[in-house]
Design a protein that fits this description.
The complex is a heterodimer of chains A (about 650) and B (about 475).
Chain A: H1 2-24, H2 30-36, E1 38-40, E2 47-49, H3 57-61, H4 85-96, H5 107-119, H6 125-133, H7 139-149, H8 151-164, H9 182-194, H10 199-208, H11 215-219, H12 222-225, H13 236-256, H14 275-286, E3 311-313, E4 321-324, H15 336-341, H16 347-355, H17 362-376, H18 397-409, H19 414-422, H20 425-428, H21 438-450, E5 463-464, H22 467-477, H23 496-499, H24 532-536, H25 555-563, H26 565-585, H27 592-608, H28 614-624, H29 631-643, H30 646-649, E6 650-651
Antiparallel strand pairs in A: 1-2, 3-4, 5-6
Chain B: H1 3-22, H2 26-29, E1 61-67, H3 73-76, H4 81-85, E2 116-119, E3 124-127, H5 131-134, E4 141-147, H6 153-162, H7 172-180, E5 190-193, E6 219-220, H8 239-260, H9 264-287, H10 294-299, H11 308-322, E7 327-332, H12 344-368, E8 375-380, E9 384-385, E10 397-398, E11 402-408, E12 415-417, E13 419-420, E14 427-429, E15 432-433, H13 434-444, E16 453-456, E17 459-462
Parallel strand pairs in B: 1-7, 1-8, 4-12, 4-15, 5-6, 5-7
Antiparallel strand pairs in B: 2-3, 4-11, 8-11, 9-10, 13-14, 16-17
Classes of the chains: A mainly alpha (about 650), B alpha/beta (about 475).
Chain lengths: ~650, ~475
C-alpha cells in the first residue's frame, strides 16, 4: 500500500506540474485535456488521473516530427554526375567529405543488380545479350520500366511488406493451426503492388478495408491481425488483450516508425510516448476486432455491434485495468489541432486520414525510407521502424525529405519512387572496381578507407540475397522455376528430420511436383517452422513486425547450400541446362577445348550473369577435363561449386 | 584445451587436407592466417562483453534435461503427506481461487502415487518413481518453489526457454552462446537434442534465436549417421567430388573477396565453409557412441530398450560438452510427453523408466570424468502438476508451484530450497520465478544477468526482461 501511496504522491506532483505548465499555455484547449483526465480509479481511494508527461517543444524538435517540406537542391561541383535530384543530395554530402562516387557499374552488374532488386530473379542469358547489345541512351530506363511492369515485381516486394506485417499462415503456439484464408492477404499485397496502388490507399484498406463494402478490400485488414495468436487459451479476454497490444505495436512500428510497444507497460523511456498514447492507439482498433471465441481464428477487422471502451492497462497487464480514454494517434506525431479534432466515432478512418494529412510528416518519411532501404540494402536511418530519439537519425536528412515529398507529389505512387531511385547515378554506381583499372580503383580504395561503412554512398552497397531469393535463383538457373502466379500456398517436401519436430500432419508436401518449384513467396508460411533455406538465411519468425532482417553468415548456411536436396537438384538441372545451351552455341565436334570453354562460359553466364575471367576459365576447364571422371560428372562438381560461390548469393 | 590452440590446429589440418587434393593452393593464396582475426561465423564471441566476468564463473557448460509436458512435482521431488491425508476431498477453501487449464479446481485431491523416502546422507526425499536418480540425492539441489505465469504448454515452454510467454524471443541457450561465444570451432555453441518421438508443444521457436543473429540458434542434432541436417553430401554425390566442389568454390570465393578488398562478411563466408567442412568431420565423430565402452553404455541404460534412446542422447550430451559445446538441451517426451492428464501412474512410470537410468548415468559419468565441477545439469519441465485429480487418476498443469533441480558445479548439493504449500498447489516459501531461475543460471556461468543485453528495436533487450527487480537465488549457490 505504501508503494501505491508513494506512486499517488508522485503522480499528483507530476499532475500539479503539468497543470501549472498548462495553465501558462495560451492555447485554448489546454484545460480541456486536463479536465478529461481525472477519473475515478478502481481502488476508489482517490481520483486516478491519466498522468502523462506533456509534449514539449524540444520533443517536437526531433527531426522525425519536424514539418515536411521539399528541401531545395544543394549545389554540387561535379555537375555532370547527377541524373536525378537524388544525386545532388548524395553528391553534396560526398563532396563535403572530400569523396567522389564510383563510376557506373558494368552493364552485366547493373542488370543483375536491378533484376534481383525488382524481381528477385537472376538475369537470363538472353536478357544479358539484349541489354549488352542495346546501345541506345535509354536502354537502362526501358529495362527499369519493363521490370517494374512485370508481375514478378509484386512477388518480390510483397515479402518486405509481409515481414512488416509479421505475416504467416498459422497461429503459432502449440497447435499452430492453419489459417486457411491467410494466403488471400498475401495475394492482395502482391496485386496491390503490381497495380501500383497508391500507398495511401494501400494503407487505408489495410486499416479499414472492411468499411468499403467490397469483400476484396476487407481482406486487406488481415494486416492488423496477421500476428501470432493462441485461440485455445483458457482466458479469451487475455487472448484479446495480447492481440490488441500486438496490433497497436505493429501499427506503430510499421506505419509510424515508432516503437509504441515500449510504452505498453510504462511511459516510453526515451521517446515522448506515454502509456496513454499506446492505449489510445490501441483504442483505434478496440471496437473492430471480432469477439474471440475459443478455438476460433480471428482474421479480419469488422466493426463490432458492441463497442469496447479503450482504457489504460497498468503494467500492460489485463488485471491492471486503468482509466478509460479515447482513441487518438500518439500526441508526439500529431499537431494539437489534429489530436483535438480526431473523429473518435470513426477512429480507423480518421486514423487513415490523419496518416496522410499534409501536417503528418511521419508516414511519408517512414515509407520513403523503407523503399530506399530495400534498393540499397540499408535504410537512411539506423532503424527504419524506430524514428525515435534513440536510434541514429538519417545520414541524409534532406534526401529523405526530398524522397518523402516526392512520394506525395506523385500521389503516393511507389513505382514512381522506385523509378526515380533506380534511375539515379547513385544507384547505378559500381560496388567495387577491380585492381586493373588504375584510376577508378584508386577511387575505390579511397572510398573504402575513408568510409568503410559506406555511410555516404560513394559506392553501391553490396547486397546479400534473402533466403527466398536464393531459392528462387537456384530454381531459376536450373530451369526448374514454375512462374505461375497467385493462389494458395504450396509445400515443397521437407527433410524427414524436420518433419519430426512438428506435430503430425503439419507439413504435407504438395502432390504436384510442379508446385514444389513455385516461387518462394508462395511457399507455405508456417509460423512454427520456417522453410529451411529461408530460416537459415535469416527470415524473421513472424512473431513481431520486422523491418530489417539479420544478415548472418553461418556454417549451417554452408551445409545447407552444399548438401541439401534443393541445391543438389539445382546443380543437376544447371548441369543439363549448360550442356544443352553450350551444345547449341559451340561447334561441338570441331574442337574439344573450345567446347569445354563454351561449357564453362555458359555455366558462368547462366549462374552468375557474366563471362568467366581468364583465371576462372582456365581453372574451371581444368576441372572439367579432369581425366579420372566423365565430363558430365566434372561439370556437376563445377555446378555445385558455382552455386556455393559468394557471388551467387550476393549482388554487386 | 585452450580454444585458440585448437582453432589454429584445426585450421592447419583443414588446409593440409584440402590443399593435398586438387592443387588449387587454397593455403598459398592466403598464407597469412587472416581468418583468425576476421569476423568468424558461429564462433566469434561477442567483442569485449561487459557482462562476462570469468572470475565469477562457477561453471562453463550447461546440460538441460527438459522433461516436456510437465512432470508432477508432488509425485517426484516434493513430498506432500498432507495431500495423502486429504486425498479424495476437495481443495480446502483456505487455498482460495486459482486458475487451471481444464476446470479441475473442484476435483478431489489425488494422493502422491508412489511413496517418498529420505535418501543418502542428506535425507533428501525422492519418490520411488526415480530410484536411480534418488541414489544421487546427495548431489541434487532441488528448487521446490518454482513458479511461472501460464497454465498453457506452449506459453510455459516459451517462458522456461526464453523468459517470455510470447513466442519468438531468443532462448536461454542462444543468450548464453551470444554472451559467451564458443569453446569449439568445429561445433555450434548451442545444441538441442529433441525427442525423436515427436515435436514439443510450441515447436522449434523454443530453441530459436529470436532477434539475435542466426548463428546463436539452437542447432538440432540427433543420434545416428546424420546428426545435423544437411551434414553429409546428398545421395549421388560422393565425398571426394564434394571436396573438389568445395575447393573450387573456395577458389571462386577467395578471388571474389580479393578483387573486392576488405569485406568482413565475405571473409566470414569463406570461413563458414571451412567450419562446415570441419563440422562434417567432427560431427560424425561426436555422435559415434560405438567407441564408448559397454560399461558406459550400461551406465546410461543404452543396453535396455526402454531407456536406450534417452540414454544415447544423454551420452551425446556428455560427448558434446567434452568437446566444448556450451549449452545442450536434451528433451524427454514426445508431443504429449509428461503431460499426464488421465493417468499419472501410467504416464510417469513410462517416462521415469525411459529417463531415470540415463540421467543418473550422466551424473555419475560427469563425476567419473572430472566434468562435474564446471558443468551445470538442469532437470525440469515447463511446469508441474496439480494436486487434485483429473479424469480420476490424472493431473492438470500447475505453473503456480513446482520443482526443478540443479546439479554439478556451483550449486549446493543434497538440499531442497523453497517450498510449496501443504498440498503442492503454490510456491509459498522463497518462491523462485522462472526469471530468477534464469538470472541464477546466467550468474553461474559468470554472466551479469542485468547487463547481458542486445539492442533491438529501441530497447536493450534482455533475457530477464525490462525490469531491474530480478534477483538471483544466492541461497542455492555453493
Amino acid at each position: 500500500m505504501s508503494g501505491r501511496a508513494t506512486l499517488l504522491v508522485a503522480t499528483s506532483a507530476r499532475i500539479v506540474a503539468t497543470v501549472a505548465r498548462r495553465w501558462t499555455d495560451r492555447r485554448r484547449h489546454a484545460l480541456v485535456s486536463v479536465a478529461t483526465i481525472f477519473l475515478i480509479s478502481q481502488l476508489g481511494l482517490a481520483a486516478e488521473p491519466i498522468a502523462e508527461p506533456e509534449i514539449t517543444a524540444s520533443d517536437r524538435d526531433h527531426w522525425a516530427f519536424a514539418p515536411l517540406q521539399q528541401p531545395s537542391m544543394p549545389t554540387v561541383q561535379a555537375k555532370r554526375w547527377p541524373q536525378t535530384p537524388i544525386d545532388h543530395f548524395v553528391l553534396h554530402q560526398l563532396e563535403q567529405q572530400q569523396l567522389s562516387p564510383l563510376p557506373e557499374a558494368t552493364r552485366t552488374a547493373l542488370l543483375r543488380r536491378v533484376k534481383f532488386d525488382l524481381l528477385g530473379l537472376p538475369p537470363t542469358p538472353q536478357e544479358i545479350r539484349d541489354f549488352q547489345q542495346d546501345r541506345s541512351p535509354d536502354a537502362y530506363r526501358r529495362l527499369v520500366d519493363r521490370l517494374l511492369a512485370s508481375p514478378g515485381y509484386g512477388e518480390r516486394w510483397a515479402q518486405y511488406w509481409l515481414d512488416l506485417a509479421r505475416f504467416a499462415e498459422t497461429d503459432g503456439f502449440e497447435h499452430d493451426r492453419v489459417r486457411e484464408q491467410a494466403w488471400k492477404y498475401r495475394q492482395w499485397v502482391v496485386e496491390a503492388l503490381n497495380q501500383d496502388m497508391p500507398y495511401d490507399r494501400f494503407v487505408r484498406l489495410q486499416l479499414a478495408g472492411d468499411l468499403t463494402g467490397d469483400k476484396q478490400d476487407a481482406i486487406a485488414t488481415m494486416f492488423c491481425l496477421a500476428g501470432p495468436d493462441m485461440p485455445d487459451i483458457n482466458e479469451q479476454d487475455l487472448r484479446r488483450h495480447d492481440k490488441m497490444n500486438e496490433v497497436a505495436s505493429t501499427v506503430g512500428a510499421a506505419l509510424l516508425g515508432l516503437q509504441m510497444h515500449c510504452a505498453q507497460c510504462h511511459d516510453h523511456k526515451y521517446d515522448a510516448i506515454s502509456q496513454a498514447d499506446f492505449y489510445r492507439l490501441r483504442g483505434i482498433f478496440e471496437s473492430s476486432v471480432p469477439v474471440m471465441r475459443r478455438d476460433q481464428p480471428v482474421l479480419q477487422l469488422a466493426a463490432q455491434a458492441k463497442p469496447v471502451t479503450p482504457r489504460i492497462y497498468h503494467r500492460g497487464e489485463l488485471q491492471g485495468r486503468g482509466p478509460e480514454l479515447q482513441p487518438r494517434p500518439p500526441r508526439i506525431a500529431c499537431s494539437d489541432a489534429s489530436h483535438e479534432s480526431f473523429d473518435v466515432d470513426h477512429p480507423r478512418q480518421a486514423f487513415a486520414d490523419w496518416l496522410f494529412r499534409d501536417d503528418n510528416p511521419l508516414t511519408a518519411r517512414v515509407i520513403a525510407n523503407r523503399i530506399w532501404q530495400h534498393h540499397f540494402g540499408r535504410s537512411l536511418c539506423e532503424n527504419p521502424s524506430d524514428f525515435g530519439v534513440i536510434a541514429a537519425g538519417p545520414s541524409h536528412p534532406q534526401l529523405l525529405d526530398w524522397l518523402a515529398t516526392d512520394l506525395r507529389r506523385g500521389d503516393w505512387s511507389l513505382k514512381r519512387l522506385h523509378r526515380v531511385i533506380l534511375l539515379s547515378a547513385t544507384y547505378r554506381q559500381a560496388s567495387y572496381v577491380e585492381p586493373h583499372d588504375d584510376t577508378a580503383h584508386h577511387l575505390y580504395v579511397t572510398s573504402l578507407e575513408a568510409d568503410p561503412e559506406n555511410r555516404w554512398l560513394g559506392r553501391f552497397p553490396r547486397k546479400r540475397l534473402e533466403g527466398e531469393t536464393i531459392r528462387d535463383a537456384l530454381l531459376a538457373v536450373s530451369g526448374q522455376l514454375d512462374r505461375r502466379s497467385g493462389g494458395p500456398s504450396v509445400m515443397p517436401p521437407l527433410p524427414p528430420e524436420l518433419l519430426k519436430t512438428l506435430l503430425k500432419g503439419q507439413w504435407k508436401a504438395s502432390e504436384k511436383p510442379a508446385d514444389h518449384v513455385r516461387r518462394s513467396i508462395y511457399v507455405f508460411a508456417r509460423r512454427n517452422l520456417r522453410y529451411p533455406i529461408f530460416d537459415t538465411f535469416d527470415r524473421p519468425d513472424a512473431g513481431a513486425s520486422c523491418a530489417v532482417r539479420n544478415r548472418s553468415t553461418t556454417a549451417i548456411q554452408s551445409l545447407q547450400m552444399l548438401n541439401s536436396r534443393l541445391t543438389f537438384a539445382a546443380a543437376q538441372g544447371l548441369c543439363e541446362r549448360v550442356l544443352q545451351s553450350s551444345a547449341a552455341v559451340g561447334e561441338s565436334d570441331t574442337e574439344a577445348a573450345f567446347a569445354d570453354e563454351a561449357v564453362v562460359q555458359q555455366l558462368f553466364l547462366i549462374a552468375l550473369g557474366r563471362q568467366p575471367h581468364a583465371e576462372e576459365l582456365q581453372q574451371a576447364t581444368t576441372q572439367l577435363t579432369e581425366p579420372s571422371r566423365e565430363r558430365n560428372e566434372n561439370l556437376l562438381v563445377l555446378c555445385v561449386a558455382v552455386l556455393n560461390s559468394s557471388e551467387f548469393i550476393y549482388a554487386d | 584445451m585452450d580454444p585458440r590452440t585448437s582453432r589454429s590446429f584445426d585450421r592447419r589440418r583443414f588446409l593440409a587436407t584440402s590443399s593435398g587434393l586438387g592443387g588449387l593452393a587454397l593455403a598459398a593464396m592466403w598464407a597469412g592466417d587472416r581468418s583468425a582475426q576476421a569476423a568468424s561465423p558461429t564462433t566469434s564471441p561477442n567483442p569485449s562483453p561487459n557482462w562476462f566476468d570469468p572470475a565469477r564463473a562457477r561453471v562453463k557448460r550447461v546440460i538441460w534435461l527438459f522433461m516436456h509436458g510437465g512432470p508432477s512435482h508432488v509425485d517426484l521431488f516434493d513430498p506432500k503427506p498432507e495431500l495423502t491425508r486429504l486425498a479424495g476431498q476437495s481443495v480446502p477453501d483456505s487455498f482460495g481461487v486459482f486458475k487451471t487449464r481444464r476446470k479441475v479446481a473442484a476435483n478431489p485431491l489425488l494422493a502422491p502415487l508412489k511413496p517418498f523416502r529420505p535418501r543418502g546422507q542428506s535425507g533428501l526425499q525422492v519418490s520411488d518413481f526415480l530410484p536411480e536418480i534418488a541414489s544421487h540425492a546427495d548431489d541434487l539441489c532441488v528448487i521446490r518453489s518454482m513458479h511461472g505465469d501460464s497454465v498453457n504448454h506452449p506459453q510455459s515452454v516459451y517462458q522456461m526457454n526464453t523468459g517470455s510467454i510470447l513466442m519468438g524471443r531468443p532462448s536461454v541457450g542462444s543468450w548464453v552462446a551470444y554472451g559467451l561465444g564458443s569453446e569449439n570451432d568445429n561445433l555450434p555453441s548451442f545444441v538441442v537434442l529433441p525427442d525423436p518421438a515427436g515435436g514439443l508443444k510450441g515447436g522449434p521457436p523454443a530453441w530459436g534465436n529470436g532477434f539475435l543473429p542466426a548463428s546463436y540458434q539452437g542447432v538440432t542434432m540427433r543420434a545416428g549417421k546424420q546428426p545435423i541436417l544437411h551434414l553429409q553430401p546428398p545421395a549421388g554425390f560422393s565425398q571426394p567430388r564434394q571436396r573438389e566442389a568445395l575447393q573450387f568454390a573456395d577458389f571462386l570465393n577467395r578471388r571474389h573477396l580479393a578483387v573486392r578488398g576488405a569485406d568482413d562478411e565475405l571473409a566470414a563466408r569463406v570461413d563458414a565453409y571451412e567450419l562446415a567442412f570441419r563440422m562434417q568431420a567432427a560431427a560424425p565423430d561426436l555422435v559415434d557412441i560405438a567407441e564408448e565402452t559397454a560399461a558406459t553404455h550400461a551406465l546410461y541404460g543404452i543396453d535396455q530398450p526402454h531407456s536406450r534412446d534417452y540414454g544415447q542422447r544423454c551420452l551425446l550430451a556428455r560427448r558434446m560438452i567434452e568437446r566444448g559445446v556450451r549449452f545442450v538441451q536434451v528433451y524427454s517426451g514426445d508431443t504429449n510427453g509428461w503431460d499426464a492428464h488421465s493417468d499419472v501412474l501410467k504416464n510417469h512410470t513410462q517416462h521415469c523408466l525411459a529417463t531415470d537410468r540415463p540421467v543418473a548415468g550422466l551424473l555419475q559419468d560427469l563425476k567419473n570424468r572430472g566434468l562435474w565441477d564446471d558443468t551445470l545439469v538442469i532437470w525440469g519441465g515447463e511446469f508441474g502438476r496439480m494436486p487434485m485429480s483429473e479424469s480420476g487418476k490424472g493431473r492438470d498443469h500447475n505453473p503456480w508451484g513446482y520443482s526443478l533441480w540443479l546439479a554439478g558445479g556451483g550449486v549446493k548439493a543434497g538440499m531442497a530450497f523453497g517450498a510449496t504449500d501443504p498440498i503442492g498447489l503454490r510456491a509459498v516459501e522463497s518462491p523462485v520465478h522462472v526469471r530468477n531461475f534464469h538470472a541464477t543460471l546466467l550468474h553461474l556461468l559468470g554472466i551479469d544477468h542485468e547487463r547481458l543485453a542486445y539492442y533491438h528495436n529501441g530497447l536493450d533487450e534482455r533475457l530477464i526482461g525490462p525490469t531491474d527487480d530480478v534477483e538471483i537465488v544466492p541461497e542455492i549457490l555453493a
